[in-house]
Amino acid sequence: MVDIAENGRTWLLSGPGSSYALHLTEADELLHLHWGARIQLADAEELSTRALPGYWAFESPLDGREEYPVEGGPRFVRPSLSVRTEERRGTEWAFEAYETEAGADGDELRLRFRDDGILITLHYRMRGDVVERWVTVGNEGHARVELLRADPAAWTLPDREGWRLSQLHGRWAAESRLTSAPLTYGEKVIGSRRGHTSHQHLPWVALDTDATEERGEVWGCALGWSGSWRIAVAQLPDARVQITGGAGYDDSGLLMLAEGESYTSPVFAGLWTDGGFGGASRAWHAYQRAYIIPDADRDRPVLFNSWEATTFDISEDQQATLARRAAAIGVELFVVDDGWFGARTSDRAGLGDWTPNPDRFPKGLKPLADYVHALGMQFGIWVEPEMVNPDSDLYRAHPDWVQYQQGRKRTELRNQLVLNLAREDVQEYLWEQLDTLLSSAPIDYVKWDFNRCFTDAGWPGEPYPQRLWVDHVRGLYALLDRLRAAHPNVAIESCSGGGGRIDLGIMSRTDEVWTSDNTDPLDRLAIQHGFSQIHPARVMSAWVTDSPNHQLNGRVSSLRFRFVSSMAGALGVGGDLSQWTEEELAEAGRWVELYKGIRPLVQRGDQFRLRPPAGGLSAVQYTLGDETVVLAWLQAQSYGEPAPALRLQGLDPAASYECLETGEVHRGAVLLHHGLRTGLKGDLDASVIRLRRI
Fold first, then answer.
1. Catalytic amino acids?
2. Is pLDDT at 678 greater than 60 in this prediction?
3. What's the top EC group for this one (predicted)?
4. 273 forms bridges with which residues in the sheet?
5. Mean predicted confidence (pLDDT) in 579-603
6. Is the entire prediction scored with pTM above 0.85?
7. Number of Cβ atoms within 10 Å of the Cβ of 474
8. What residues form DSSP beta bridges with 222?
């Protein structure tokens, strides 16, 4: 909902529990008024009457109070907008008009400003208690305008003392780990220079002063962009805090706009809650399920992926054998990973040639897909369309289609180069290859990988080669949108060597994400804990693989611990089923059956992090309607002491709940002992506890 003052210069956006207000002064200074608990329009108007402090020689009253700081004029903070024409650099804008547009997904407010032939539109939309902001910059009067930076938003926080900043950091196989630290004066900058979202940081931050998991005010921001990005959190000299962020890491240039062209930024979304970090997470999850994730009301199937069982050494008969074993334990989606196409017998060849290997699949993929369907499962494949091996028919025909710098060595990581998806001919080639592939066999699922960063991001012959960084991502989005429209029943997983491309932008075009290449069930607890701060379990692909864990650490863990760890998200199996014993297969079948029973709660329910993975007992709760499930993990037991009890959250204190494992009836706030004091023992043990309201 958008409320507007009679003078048309104060605007208030309100959700169920929060409000966001801004005001335009008579001098066309756009000021931030409020972001927090719900207020009325009269409150916003009263806030707008408070005068700015005066100017003095070394400070600006606009800094930390301006809604969208531009470059130029009496401003010293990091600008959200930086443009350059042939005559000058910077912005001196004038307000032109505002517009509102009602929509089923929320009312949109648009504020239009103009500066000498440059049109700047600030967009606002509130969905639930999440404020979406983005900007459009258009060139309407210059031969060209260089867009150095155009952030979707700057977020201004209220005056508080003792701010604490939370973020998600990591690296390959150790993504999405949560860290919190006091915010100090100056800037804290996170981001990616790598051409994709990256394993090192997720584009999300949260700030608080004294919040706990279930109580206290939390402000959070998340960027919907799948390329290079930057978020800067600044505590200014007067202690005010402002957050800026958007596409591109540096100010070296985004795009060159010819006359008549425009740029629309990605969305930078913000959320306030007084429900602590858990309340913030549940609000983010609900927002993504309602507005971001395609078909979010459709639960993700249990999948089997062949990679760890076979790596590159695959054949049609071998895959069929694995498919039979997968179907027998209740798997619903069978995925053939890398190695099915071109000359792909190792990672040294074949990328770019998206036709089935004639030796391995002499009649194409259709016979195997039909066989998998006959077993009662869906069929999926792995692709990596944005990459090419130098040893491929594609590269031999079009060596100029890759990113490279003229006169420099082309860096090969994982024996591959990055295709320049900013080129329309590359986009068209990939569309023809993938559309033909998806039309050639009954394929239900595509695992879309991206296994290296940009290193030589050049474009010889292009007048403005910097645009590659933005237009590669826009080309990716356009290709995904086109494929989804042509093949609406094909689900797509976003993968980037694990969690290297996870953000709201890619999630709006894919059905789930590969959280990490690290499938060790103990390591995954911390990765999944961090992931849940912003993203829901519905999109978090999690596999049960072999023990000892052969990929990373050789850790030995029980099938029970591996399954319960992976049941916290979209369950998958990635172990070599041909080597599992009959007893292991039978146990796996029981866990898959149990997961299917609790899947609606995990993938669509409200999530409560009862205890973080900090070395002892950790647990997470999911509640949907009258049903609740708790997944608990005992990492290590000390001195023979039993695991502590858990007090559940979000239940009706006046209701009674039956524990389906024991038949015990609990009334009021449920304190769980079953499976904790008696069931969890030793190291790396796990428990699943179900309750139903009666």
1. 449, 517
2. no
3. hydrolase
4. 218
5. 98
6. yes
7. 20
8. 204, 269
